[in-house]
Amino acid sequence: MELIDPLYIGFDLSTQQLKALVATSELKVVQVAKFDFDTDSCGFAIKNGVITNEVEHEIFAPVSMWIQALDGVLRMLKDQGLDFSHVKGVSGAGQQHGSVYWSLDAEARLTALEKDKTLEEQLYEAFSHPFSPNWQDATPLDISDVCGMNIWNIKRNTFDDRLLELCAGSFGVEDLKLKLGDVAQDGGMHLGKIAKYFVERYSFNPDCTVIPSTGDNPATILALPLRPSDAIVSLGTSTTFLMSTPHYKPDTSTHFFNHPTTPGLYMFMLCYKNGSLAREQVRDAIDSKLGKNNSSDPWTNFDRAVLSTPSMGQKTGSDLMKMGLFFPRPEIVPNLRDGQWRFGYDPKADTLTESDSGWDRPLDEARAIVESQMLSLRLRSRGLTQNPSADIPAQPQRVYLVGGGSRNKAIAQLAGEILGGIDGVYRLDVGENACALGAAYKAVWGLKRQSGQTFEDFISRRWREEEFVQKIADGYQRERQPGWPKMEDQVANAIEIAWNHSSDQAIKAQAFDYLNQLRSDPSGWQVCLSIFIKTPRHSDIVRHVALEVVNSAAEAGLIDSQGLGLVKDSLMAYLLQFYGSGGPVPDTSNIQNKIAQTITFLFSVLYPIGWVTFFDDLLRLTSETQSSSLWDNLPGIIFYLRVINSVHDEIGDVLVSRSRAEQDKANTLKDLIRERDMRKIANSWQEILSQWQNRNEQVVEMSLKAVGSWVSWIDIALVVNQPMLDLLFRQLSRAQKPDLRDGEEKVRDSAIDVFTEIIGKKMKAEDKIDMIMFLDLESIVAQLSRSPPLHDNRFTSKYDTDFAETVAKLVNITVVDIVRALDCESSDIQTKEKASILLQSFLPHILRFFSDEYDEICSTVIPCVNDLLSYSRKISKSNPPLAAQHSTMLLPILKAIISKMRYDETSSWGDEDGETDEAEFQELRKRLHILQQIIATANEQLYIDVVWDVVGTTFVNIRQAGTRLDWRDLDLALHEMFLFGDLAVRAGDLYTKNKPNNIAAERLIEMMLRMVESDIRSFTHPATQLQYMEICVRYSSFFEHHTRLIPGVLESFLQLVHHPTKKVKTRSWYLFQRLVKHLRTHIGNIAQTVIEALGDLLVIQAEVPSAGSDADEMSSEDHEGSADAVFNCQLYLFEAVGSICSTIAVPPDKQALYAQSVMNLIFVDMEMNLASAKSNDERSLLQIHHDIMALGTLARGFSDWMPGTNAPSTIPPVPEISEAFFQVSEVTLVALESLKMSFNIRTASRFAFSRLIGVLGSRILPQLPRWIDGLLNQTSSKDEMALFLRLLDQVIFGFKGEIYGILDTLLTPFLQRVFSGIADPASGTDDEIQLAELKREYLNFLLAVLNNDLGSVIISQANQPIFEIVIATIELFAKDVDDFTTAKMAFLVLSKMASSWGGPDIAPDPSNGVYITQSALPGFSHFMITRFSPLCWALPITPTFNSKDAQARQALAEAGGLQKTIYSKTGAEYVQYLRDRELPGMGMGADLIEEYLDALSRMDMKGFRHFFQSFIQRLSA
């Protein structure tokens, strides 16, 4: 235990002095010493602490003077009697830009200090530069200034490499970083014990700890526990305005710093060079004129001049206002040269003139200089302060003055008048020593804090305001702040204009701009709050918008805690006045909801930290008199319930998406409510329901809604108790009434919702089953189902679907929990027996609502049916005896499912008005299909039998009833046939070795026979015709085994492709192509017949999109009936024609003839439109686009072959076909060459090129230069280049034996176009994505060239000029820390180059297997070592590189692979280079180097790749 309170020293090295302040751990100042540079230093030609070179505008200080001062100030403290052995910690504060440059031998000198000599004697030569620049220095920024100010990236919390690079010059960034050293991230960290020199010379305690020092301004804000609403004004040599804030809002006129002690906080600062020195010049001029006063205070004359001069020097209203700027030094803000300017402002004429006319100099200048300095502070801090209350403008809560000027009462008074300070202006008792005080506090905190304790918390616990500060001036004075009522009128007027439909649009736009500025203005909310609560009231729209501004400002963090308290008090006073008196409702519902929203936000912020009476305050509104226990105030009750429901929405609604932090906050609030207020809230619901159950439906409904929403997260006993249940059952009884009053339906449904929420509450399975039985829910549901609205009115227009859906929700949640109890392994036998009984009793209710005619009611119980069926499927495998007991439930459910699959009688398929209903029905079918699949898995035979019965019965009825069968029944049968394939073709096909692969397949084959052989084609309903085609295509393998049926099916399809309904027709084009493709080998020579049948459909008619449609996307399929969508479907016909014309049954010459017959029509059309297309006729361009797309698609139909593949299913086209399609290539090129500036033409041509490769083979190679010229030009996008590069990869792979000569010729011009695309800067997110894709496709192209033994083309004589550019681009990509995928690919390319051109392996890798001897490219070994190897380090040394990122690790692995490849080619030469140059240059020591080289030489490729990843991660750590 320490008998003597330990001491802590804070040093302040300012411009004119070094101070040392000694404080106790309780923050009491015990000693102060000051070493004044002008007075106390020896041997330095200084004035005001600095040396001034007026010629060069340089201002600097001798570093040795500071060293001298350190010994001097410690000697002063010793002379004062300080016992240094009690000093436990020291810290300091240094002036801005004060930079000291140690020499190389400084460390040795520091460790050899002798106690008998001064620091100045021993360290005189320890500095590489004898002077330090001063903050007043106005020379261009050099390394000192930059290092002292503008090279730290606040957001990233590290040095900014771009700025370091500007400063480092030829020495390099790493050298500069080494000089700068590490930055202490923890402001209270222990740097080490005090040096031996100070222990021996001054008797410091050897355990005295050094805490990191900070800057003078950051130290100032540590001089007290500064609140976010307070400001510090430092009146020293410079004038500085400081605040602490959690918001980072950088601005050109302010400085933002990381907080010196507290992560997450920032210090912002306004800094001016011209502070006390400027004021002193005016003071001295006044003294020169008046004569020095006999007072001991040198500022007496100055103060009298300030206080005797009226504001702005304006003695009467007609006088000019005087304003001046006094800058003896060049100023920072504003950025102005030195000088003096005086102005006169005429408020009547609104004119400002530079003139000293009317100035009584220098007396008027006393007030003018203080006013100008304070006004500048207010002007530039106005966006950073907030309004203390609704009718007070933005200003600090308090203004603290520190520094030498803080003792000047006149300055303090003007600071209050101009800056404000609602609580006044204060001075720290040691205000002129604030920096030293902050440094001392920092030392105390660093050594005494608890783990995780913030500086603010630590200091505030020890801070005794009455001992440290004194009020020296009043702050804000209302009479000096006119204009508030006028601003209210302006805001109200702007809102009226903005929301008035008849307002002039220009004026309306101005009003919206004004209101948007108001929203972002930190002071805007006070005006709006005043508008809202003002009487007489503004219009509803004005009040609604005004309160919305307040609400959004609160949610955006623009209102501090004090401001939120003001909003709370204002709104609660308003509510008590207008809602607590029992009078008429004062506000409309939307206004009430907006108030409730704001009150709820205030609750979320203030309830945990002080507003513990929140619910009591609201409950006061529910009675007309405060002493009454009656719930008799209707407006107050309704508003109370609004807030109760709003609070749940804020913290309890599980459907609201919340971040982790938001959810934690919500959970905390719920815990507090449960602890403090839950019983009184639950009691309020019961009392309100009891007293208002027969008096007001709105109150009852809102009460029930509150009970239902809150029950999920409160004690269930607060709701499930006999008094509350009695009230709930009374509300349920309304269901039996044949006629309900207006509003009673909502009450009834809300009561049911309460039971639904009770059952939905999480609890153990056994407790949930007991709850269901205790509430007797089956009886409740039965009574509700038999009620007149659901039973008597079911098949009438009076059927209450909302009521039915509400009951269905209750059934659904109940059955879900019953099944969960059955499926829960921890449920005991008794619980499962109870659950089984309940399930049987609820089955009729499940079927009742599942089979309801209205799909939304059916959909409501699908989740519980899904759970029930899933449980049945599970036990069918794990517990067959139990499954047998449940099997009786499956048949009625399956029949209900199939019944719901049927279109109802009111549906009208195909009508535009019914598109939404159709989409919803198809979505329901998908959900029902899932249920069918579950049943099929649980009881396959049952499913097969039921579907067989449905389908078989339908086809029997077709034969008996002919076309009189309802189309809905046929559609249902066909739909079930289509779905049946999930079971029948689950092995991939209907057949295995020409036999049906299972029982389901056998049944499906029989269904197919019945379908095809029936008279189904006589049914002309579009729905059944579409189903028929879909089935034929899905089960096309059926026709491969029943080829006799193919002609009839094709005939049907050829009829349906002309269907009058566009939806059927366009879908049939796709299905026809699919069917033809599947049955291609079984189709005879019917090409001519098909071409003739499809002739009218092959005519291309381009339609220019109408105005307002999206004409940019040629492939848009947003609308099935759009011209683009129809054309895209039409292309399937061209592919189908190609497939039919190229079957083995058609001779090659006939194939070419048929192809030519289709092509010629398109050729003629292109020729007709080419001239007008050249003139940029939009329709002609679109027509040629369509023509080219059709030709390319026709080619795809003729051949699936791709060069380079040997798949037996695809063979190269016959010569006759190649010859025919060579014309297509030529025609397309002609069009492309003429219209290559058109994006759409290039798109179509690129598509055609990709399809022609398969039919032309190597014949396309000589045309490659023309294709490249047309597809890649100055208007081609990065995306187009990337897509074409991908096609070229395919060409290179397919024709690698034939393409060398052509590739050698075109490589340079081709890559130059790619380079231009890469060099073009990205202009947005989409462009950045396209650029990244282009880079990767470029690298893929290089890999394709290298991997296909064509690498020599890159270094050929013709392409040598671009080799360096190729390498440079790869180097650039390999260093891209923002795109690891591209970097990884770049290393792959470099590795492939190394293995291709590096010659035979000198150091073989055993994992590489057999070696292929290669000849080395002369000089390439040295090139690899000096150019490739350094790239492996360039990526990981980037400051933002994250070695733990998965993609970064992949890039590192490839970088390691590159080094291993270089080593295999160069061996000892590479090892020597790494040992002597590269690795030492990375700052590695000998041990690390040897470890690295050992791994490189010893490990195989895979091992070293992993080693390099982990090695970099170790270095990063």
From TrEMBL:
Keywords, ordered alphabetically: Carbohydrate metabolism, Cytoplasm, Nucleus, RNA-binding, Transport, tRNA processing, tRNA-binding, Xylose metabolism
Annotated SUPFAM superfamilies: Actin-like ATPase domain, ARM repeat
The keyword tRNA-binding belongs to this UniProt entry's keyword annotation: yes
Catalytic activity: D-xylulose + ATP = D-xylulose 5-phosphate + ADP + H(+)
Biological process according to GO: D-xylose metabolic process; tRNA processing; tRNA re-export from nucleus
Residues of the Exportin-T C-terminal domain: 830-1515
Presence of keyword Heme: no
Subcellular localization: Cytoplasm; Nucleus
Name the UniProt record assigns to this protein: Exportin-T
Organism per entry: Elaphomyces granulatus
